[in-house]
UniProtKB/TrEMBL annotation:
Organism this protein belongs to: Sphingomonas oligophenolica
Listed InterPro entries: NTF2-like_dom_sf, SnoaL-like
Listed Basic and acidic residues bias regions: 145-154
Region of interest (Disordered), ranges: 145-165
Matches recorded under Gene3D superfamilies: 3.10.450.50
Pfam families the record matches: SnoaL_4 (PF13577)
All residue ranges annotated as the SnoaL-like domain in the record: 4-126
Taxonomic placement: Bacteria, Pseudomonadati, Pseudomonadota, Alphaproteobacteria, Sphingomonadales
Annotated protein name in UniProt: Nuclear transport factor 2 family protein
Amino acid sequence: MDIQALADRQAISDLIYAYCRSVDRLDVPLGHSIWHEDGQADYGPEVYQGDGRGVIDHICAQHRHTLHHSHQVSNILIELDGDRAGSEAYVTATLRMMRGEKLLQMSVWSRYIDSWSRRDGRWGLDNRLAIRDFDEVREVTEMDRHEMGARDSSDPSYAVLGARR
């Protein structure tokens, strides 16, 4: 594998990770930045189908109704073909919310099947198919209250990563 291929794989991986950061920090501009302007997202008819940047708006709006949320990505596979690429990434999303007096935790295990292209020297997402493999909602008991993190740019990570990372 040559240096350019390694750099391309890293650039695409970084965008996949940036997506998770954007929805966890409710950072809409960061989320928009991973998509090409004409990108399309299909999270299924029950969640969202439409333009890629719109899915960021939708997810961040939905997450504002929760107490906490965390997304992790693993098992990223990337196939390069010049200025085009395909990837699969496994995603776990965990969200907490109150329903009446009950603290609920929703966990979703999914895969992102993505098509990418490099345009004007920048990799961006052309199409995402989100496949939900399984999910659950259950009542939970907190061990402690955790107050250090924030779901916006006041989160301590922005001080060390910069405004748009």
